[in-house]
């Protein structure tokens, strides 16, 4: 493009001839016609200046002697104007000039003098040469302008780039740095120039000789080098995280260009994200992931220091009740409050995490003795258990704490966590508001529990569970009242596992909720299967565990299954233990009310073993009392137990409740019960739990005489 422009200018080059005498002009015109230029002839100095303003003139042939304005004056004015300052002038004169005049002419900017008459050939050559010269000057001017433009452009790119840019020579010294680079290092560009690049980096990238550095090695191999995690050291000694990219410049430069990208914002963001990922949004404590990282780090530290390490697992007692009754906002408020209280008990460097729900965990580093952990546990329990006001409502929660020490109770994060969790359960079992250390026997139990839990999960999937049915008999007539469904687990290796072993586990692991649904479904299905063999009032009793009883959707679930299978709710009885009723008075009352509304009967299981059995009778509407097996087993020998049994029988009669004596094994026991007018019995004397098929064949009316007499039958 530049070339095309130059070509055009070659065509446009104008030769201006100035002479006041028309004949001179004419002869000049004739002489110069047909040349490689555009000829313009004017007859005065003024006209010449006018033409010079309007056109690009390559060369002026200027007559010296002219009226008004002579050639010298024209030349002087031309030189005063930037546009024509360098336009070449040849003075033409008819008379020989004095040396003075000639010198004056040159001083005014003439490039040559010609005396008339002159040799046209010489004149044309001269003109040619001068125009050529002028063209070159023009081209040069243009190139210079372009170069200046390009340089200014490059400079503005470098000056305005947001990245720091340096050129570093093969000697490791900075040859060039842009303002951003200087800004990043808090110094001036001049200070940077000539300094060694490595002195501006932080370890490890600043270590060693330049020639051994990766920058130099890559440059030598003519390769680019990128460093994502470098840090610059500002003049004030501060650290600026940067990403560096270094690329070799073309060979003869013997240098590299280094770009530095400020990563402060990105790295801050990273740090923020990381901290978000490890903190619990509600309390600001660590979350499960954060806890894991903290414990890993603490274990590593303890390995080195040889000091003690303990993990405290804290679970709130009674949180669920508050959360359910006062709403989640209040629950959240309580959790935040507790988090604050716990924090206040700990040293600033102890890690504290919320593991979800109402479970908290603290890590004690550099512990002197395990007793220190116990002391803290006591403090934590005490702190949390104060009465507090939430949105104007007074509440009290408690806390149970399990403690596991490293490395005795577990060597890994998971191991320690499990141990502390176990110990916490132990504390809860022992009656809450306590702490417990994890002990070796707990360890053994933990292992078998784990195995059991694992096989229970697969048992649910493979349906290794089944129900057996134990008959309940009216003592006066021998008529069948109904069956209690009892759960059995047929373990592929261990054989039949008793419910006292696995039901508590199912409860702890909450697997009972999954299995509970199955029990309802299966029991009701098999009760329907029995319909054709028995009267309509045959009752099916289903056991409901405390956890199941505490589930808000219990009634809905039951109703759905009853409707699906079309069983009359009156044919169903739900057995609840005193333990289940103990949870929370209001919720329990509501749950029982809903169940009765549904139309199912309610029995209290193991009646008489709890602390406030009589209170339940006052608060709750019930249908049936089941006298605990232990009273029956002992009543013939112990007058106290006998008194309890007969009292319960009287109580039931007076309150219009059915009473069932459980665990009747002998005829003597039965006779005693008949004598004391107990209405219903259940026990091995009649039958243990029977498989569904056997239960169907059970007589609707029992012939006592036909019963094989057993004093203590095998289970
Ligand atoms: P429970 O509800 O008190 O059940 C009665 C227990 O006494 C049953 O033990 C039964 O086999 C046993 N039994 C019955 N008659 C006699 C007897 O004459 N002598 C003796 N020594 N024992 C007798 P099992 O089946 O081992 O159940 C134990 C506990 O497991 C039950 O106590 C109940 O609390 C729980 N359970 C059983 N099945 C289920 C179930 O399907 N769901 C729930 N949630 N819990 C269940
Ligand atoms: Ca029962
Ligand atoms: Ca019972």
Automatic annotation (TrEMBL):
Cellular component terms per the entry's GO annotation: plasma membrane
Residue ranges annotated for the EAL domain, each copy included: 449-703
Name under which the protein is recorded: Response regulator receiver modulated diguanylate cyclase/phosphodiesterase
Alphabetical list of InterPro entries matching this protein: Biofilm_reg_signaling, CheY-like_superfamily, EAL_dom, EAL_sf, GGDEF_dom, Nucleotide_cyclase, PAS, PAS-like_dom_sf
PROSITE patterns the UniProt entry points to: EAL (PS50883), GGDEF (PS50887), PAS (PS50112), RESPONSE_REGULATORY (PS50110)
Keywords tagged on the record: Phosphoprotein
CDD domains from the UniProt entry: EAL (cd01948), GGDEF (cd01949), PAS (cd00130)
Domain of life: Bacteria
Cofactors, names only: Mg(2+)
Modification sites for 4-aspartylphosphate: 63
Cell compartment(s), UniProt: Cell inner membrane
Domain Response regulatory: 14-131
Gene Ontology molecular function, alphabetical: kinase activity
GO biological process, one term: phosphorelay signal transduction system
Residues of the PAS domain: 150-206
């Amino acid at each position: 493009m530049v070339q095309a422009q130059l070509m055009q200018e070659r065509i446009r080059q104008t030769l201006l001839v100035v002479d006041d005498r028309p004949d001179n002009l004419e002869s000049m015109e004739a002489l110069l016609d047909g040349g490689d230029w555009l000829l313009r002839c004017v007859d005065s100095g003024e006209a010449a200046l006018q033409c010079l303003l309007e056109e690009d003139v390559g060369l002026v042939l200027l007559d010296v002697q002219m009226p008004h304005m002579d050639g010298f004056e024209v030349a002087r004015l031309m030189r005063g104007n930037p546009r024509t300052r360098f336009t070449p002038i040849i003075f033409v004169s008819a008379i020989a000039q004095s040396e003075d005049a000639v010198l004056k002419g040159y001083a005014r900017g003439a490039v040559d003098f010609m005396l008339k008459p002159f040799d046209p050939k010489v004149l044309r050559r001269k003109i040619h040469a001068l125009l050529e010269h002028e063209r070159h000057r023009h081209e040069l001017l243009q190139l210079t302008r372009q170069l200046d433009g390009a340089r200014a452009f490059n400079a503005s790119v470098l000056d305005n780039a947001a990245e720091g840019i340096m050129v570093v020579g093969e000697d490791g010294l900075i040859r060039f740095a842009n303002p951003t680079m200087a800004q990043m290092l808090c110094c001036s560009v001049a200070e940077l120039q000539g300094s060694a690049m490595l002195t501006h980096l932080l370890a490890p990238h600043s270590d060693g000789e330049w020639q051994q550095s990766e920058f130099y090695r890559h440059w030598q191999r003519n390769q680019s080098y990128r460093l994502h995690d470098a840090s610059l050291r500002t003049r004030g000694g501060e650290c600026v995280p940067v990403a560096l990219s270094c690329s070799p410049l073309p060979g003869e430069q013997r240098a590299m260009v280094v770009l530095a990208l400020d990563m402060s914002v990105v790295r801050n963001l990273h740090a923020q994200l990381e901290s978000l990922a490890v903190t619990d949004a509600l309390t600001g404590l660590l979350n499960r992931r954060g806890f894991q990282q903290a414990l890993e780090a603490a274990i590593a530290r303890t390995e080195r220091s040889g000091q003690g390490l303990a993990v405290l697992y804290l679970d709130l007692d009674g949180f669920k009740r508050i959360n359910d009754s006062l709403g989640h906002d209040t629950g959240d408020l309580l959790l935040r409050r507790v988090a604050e209280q716990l924090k206040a008990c700990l040293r600033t460097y102890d890690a504290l995490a919320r593991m979800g729900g109402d479970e908290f965990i603290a890590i004690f580093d550099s512990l002197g003795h395990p007793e220190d952990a116990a002391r803290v546990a006591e403090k934590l329990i005490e702190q949390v258990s104060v009465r507090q006001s939430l949105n104007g409502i007074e509440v009290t929660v408690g806390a149970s704490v399990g403690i596991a020490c490293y490395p005795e109770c577990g060597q890994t994060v998971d191991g320690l966590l499990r141990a502390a969790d176990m110990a916490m359960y132990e504390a809860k079992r022992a009656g809450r508001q306590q702490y417990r250390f994890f002990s070796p026997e707990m360890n053994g139990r933990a292992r078998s529990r784990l195995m059991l839990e694992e096989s229970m999960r697969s048992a649910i999937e493979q349906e290794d569970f089944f129900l057996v049915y134990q008959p309940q008999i009216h003592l006066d007539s021998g008529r069948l009242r109904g069956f209690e469904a009892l759960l059995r687990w047929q373990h592929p290796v261990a054989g039949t596992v008793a419910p006292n072993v696995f039901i508590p586990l199912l409860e702890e692991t909450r697997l009972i909720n999954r299995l509970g649904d199955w029990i309802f479904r299966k029991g009701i299905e098999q009760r329907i299967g029995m319909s054709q063999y028995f009267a309509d009032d045959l009752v099916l009793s289903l056991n409901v565990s405390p956890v199941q009883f505490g589930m808000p959707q219990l009634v809905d679930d039951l109703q759905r299954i009853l409707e699906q299978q079309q069983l009359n709710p009156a044919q169903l009885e739900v057995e609840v233990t005193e333990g289940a009723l103990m949870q929370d008075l209001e919720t329990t009352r509501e749950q029982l009310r809903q169940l009765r509304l549904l139309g199912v009967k309610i029995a209290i299981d193991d009646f008489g073993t709890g602390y406030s059995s009589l209170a339940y009778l006052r608060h709750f509407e019930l249908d049936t009392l089941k006298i605990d097996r232990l009273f029956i087993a002992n009543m013939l020998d112990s007058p106290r137990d006998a008194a309890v049994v007969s009292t319960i029988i009287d109580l039931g009669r007076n309150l219009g409740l059915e009473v069932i004596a459980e665990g009747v094994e002998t005829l003597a026991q039965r006779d005693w019960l008949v004598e004391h007018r107990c209405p219903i019995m259940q026990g091995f004397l009649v039958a243990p739990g029977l498989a569904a098929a056997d239960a169907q064949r059970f007589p609707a009316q029992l012939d006592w005489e036909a019963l094989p007499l057993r004093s203590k039958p095998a289970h």
